[in-house]
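Sync notes, pocket subgroup
Present: LS, DG
LS reminded everyone that the earlier model was apo-only. Rerun requested with zinc ion included. Inputs:
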Amino acid sequence: MRVSPYSGYSNAPSGLSRQKPARNPAPKFGWGWDSHNAIEAASIHWLPDSSFKGFLQRHLPEINRVSIRQDTEHEGPQHYLNLEDTAQPPISKEEAHDFNRVRQQFSPQNQAAQRQQFRQSPLSAERLAKFTNVFQVTTQLYDGLVGLLKQASIAPWLPPASKAQLGGQITETVGALSHYAADLNQPLHTTRHSTWQTALAKPNEQGSHHFMEVILFTKSENRNLGNNLAKLHYQPTYLPPLGLKQRLLQQIQNAYLQVFNLAQGDAQGRNSPSTYFASLKQAWQPIATQQTVASACTVSDILHSAYEEAGRPDLSQL
Ligand SMILES: [Zn+2]
């Protein structure tokens, strides 16, 4: 059923009806920059070591800026992972954007089959090492961070200029690493069907992806999400390099399985055009919230693990 553009908005619950997307809005809500920055703040807040935590908190504004710069200056394959490309023949852009194709691929039956397939043959680092993707970039940045933190152990004996340079490199790496470790939890980053036409999208406008990253949460809903994230008490786990890779692969699998829930929520919403917008929000918000929390935990684990791996250098001088 084809729903006229934005028809859902007029019947959306009060407060939502004015949430028409602006022409070229900056991505902020749902999985946009505000979410990235909230994830960085929470993941750093949970770190147990005061020296590392203190350093990162002193440099949080810069970490936030570097993280956002990944989207404005370095957009490209390192932000995503089209899982379909690792196993099946490529899907054309037209097919990927077609909701009927999405509905077919992400049916409940296929979800059960996919879960089973992940159980029997989990994603492997080897399989993903063959092309540039968010997993590869995240693990490379992690290795880079461990190297920089190891250098920091001699920080007290470095001249001021070298200290500043090293501090800057650590900040840059943490900003980028936090961004990509979060991105691999965004379900629509894990599939070739990264953008499909929603019943709300105007022709030529980014559909589902735009909805998730820009429209899904209002400004105040997004602020609440950030506040709630900050209130969680998460204890980051140290994972040795191989265990960390396994953890990231697991996160990608989980995110991919969420695409099925997004598609099924969308299909259900299309049955009733007048409430489509509200029903899409209702189906997608818990998924986006869960993935945001998963991202913050992942980022915290990575930062904590890198610091432990580097031998817990004293960063108070940087
Ligand atoms: Zn990104």
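DG: Residues 1-29 have pLDDT under 50 and may be disordered.
LS: The domain at 38-309 is CATH 1.10.575.10 (P1 Nuclease).
Action: DG to write up.
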